[in-house]
Amino acid sequence: MRVDETPRYPGQALIDLDALAHNYRILSGKIGQADSLVIVKADAYGHGAQKIALALYEAGARWFGQAQLGEALQLAHAFKKAGLPPLRTAPTAQTPRIFSWISVPGLDGDELRVQALENGIDLSISNLEELVEIVAAAQTTGICARVHLKVDVGNSRAGCPRDVWDSFFSQTALAQADGKIKIVAIWSHLQSADDPAPEAFAETKTQIQNYELALEVAKKYGIIPEIRHLAATSGGLWHPESRYDLVRWGIGLYGLSPNSAHETAKELGLKPVMRLRAPLLSVKEIPAGQGVSYNATWRAERNHWVGLVPLGYADGIPRLASNRAGVSVHTREGIIRARVIGRICMDQFVIDLGINPPAAKRGDTVELFGNETEIDDWAKASQSVNYEIITRLGPRVERIYYGQGETKYRTEAGEKN
Ligand SMILES: *Cc1c(COP(=O)(O)O)cnc(C)c1O
Questions:
Q1: 255-280, pLDDT tens digit by residue?
Q2: Which residues sit with their C-beta closer than 6 Å to ligand 1?
Q3: Which of the listed residues 204, 227, 343, 361 has the most CB atoms within 10 Å of its CB?
């Protein structure tokens, strides 16, 4: 018997690269003179970082954001393979830049930082420990590190807190004078820019003022960065004064709104990039009184037709959405909506096809989501946000790319498509 060594799984995510390019154009068109940085962290929010980054490069993006340094290096490698200009040569309009802001301490981190400098990746510094580590990498390689200094303007995540800005900027200014680092940017991240409530707007204003203050303190030490960046999608869309020189677009690129209660993707002119589907495995009738899936959290009051879908929480389908979320079944007689009933399992879940024999049959396509409303419904059904629904889609789900950007660059991940 021949055993196929390439695993094959039933679920497929269709990734529309035309929609991606469209979203990039819409978003970058909203911010006047400011430039765009495209965030491709977490495998481009589950869409596949290499393919997405290359399609965005093709659409005109030159700044790329990858949270983790190891992933940033993979991206640099993919750019090299695709024949893009190397990051470390004298930059032209065609040169991409990669910015990464999570690098760990210890030996592994030291090795990655050395590779980062060799590959021309921009790094973030939030504290003096990171400064020491990056200066060490600069010493090892003889390469001046391009850094973005991160200040905490109120989110309490990464970033140097306000009461130590003086020592932070004086020490980084010294390292710059010493030729170990080049301070490219001062940056931060807003906490509540997606929230339309007046108090949240006031908080965002305060955070922008804090950022302004950081720029002033830095100036005292002779630091005047080429680039100031503060806004993610929500700031870029809803707080024009936070755009500065560069807006870091994440969720908007993937065609979703950071908060559709504020403004929907459709209202923003964005198109969802991902559709998730799987074939229907079976259709059958169950008798009145019978429970569905583990622990019978749903029970048929009368005879019911049920369908079985081969995706589960191993694929990132949230178990919390059991008995709540819905899907579309594409039958020969048209599309029918069906609710998830019973517990979502590891590899499969059951849907309710009603009390009459349905048009649905084994092999019909079940679409879990393909538009913002459906993605938001899955998010609501699992007490989460649209970000999490797309990002945690598991590696077993095959990504299938279509649209213009598809054939231009070859990537390791994409060749089988
Ligand atoms: C994820 C992230 C972004 C993008 O956020 P969106 O809300 O998806 O636009 C921007 N900046 C930083 C630092 C991030 O971690």
A1: 999 999 999 999 999 999 999 999 99
A2: 39, 41, 67, 189, 232-234, 248-252, 258
A3: 204
CA–CA dist 399, 14 (Å, integer): 6
Q: Over 80: is that where the pLDDT of 6 sits?
A: no
86: number of Cβ within 10 Å: 13
Q: Which of 151, 157, 248 is the best mutation target for the ligand 1 pocket, counting ligand atoms within 8 Å of the beta carbon and taking the most?
A: 248
Distance of CA 124 to the CA centre of its chain: 19
CA of 230 to the centre of ligand 1 (A): 10
Q: What is the rounded CA–CA span in Å between residue 137 and residue 144?
A: 9
Query: Which amino acids are annotated catalytic?
Result: 41, 294
| Nearest-atom index, ligand 1, CA of 37 | 10
Q: Tell me the CA–centroid distance for residue 232 and ligand 1, in Å.
A: 5
Q: What angle do CA 186, 173, 133 make, to 5 degrees?
A: 80
Axis crossing angle, helix 69-81 with helix 49-59, rounded to the nearest 10: 60
The larger pLDDT score, comparing residue 8 to residue 204, is at: 204
Amino acid at 199: E
For the stretch 230-248, pLDDT in tens is: 999 999 999 999 999 999 9
Q: What is the mean pLDDT of residues 152-167?
A: 97
Q: Candidates 37, 39, 122, 187: which one to mutate for ligand 1, based on the most atoms within 8 Å of Cβ? A: 39
Q: What is the DSSP letter of 151?
A: B
Among candidate residues 250, 251, 254, the one with its CA nearest the CA of residue 274: 254
> Tell me, what DSSP letter sits at residue 144?
P
Give distance in angstroms: CA of 249 to centre of ligand 1. Answer: 7
Residue owning the nearest CA to atom 15 of ligand 1 = 67
- Residue with CA nearest ligand 1 atom 10: 232
- Residue 211 Cα to ligand 1 middle (Å): 17
| Burial 337-355, CB ≥16 within 10 A → b, else e | ebbbbbbbbebbbbbbbee
DSSP calls for 239-282? -GGG-TTEEEE-GGGGT--S-TTTS-HHHHT----EEEEEE--E
Distances (CA, A) of 96 to 187, 215, 397: 19, 26, 29
Whole-model pTM: value is 0.95
Is the per-residue pLDDT at 293 higher than 50? yes
pLDDT band at residue 5, thresholds of 50, 70 and 90? confident
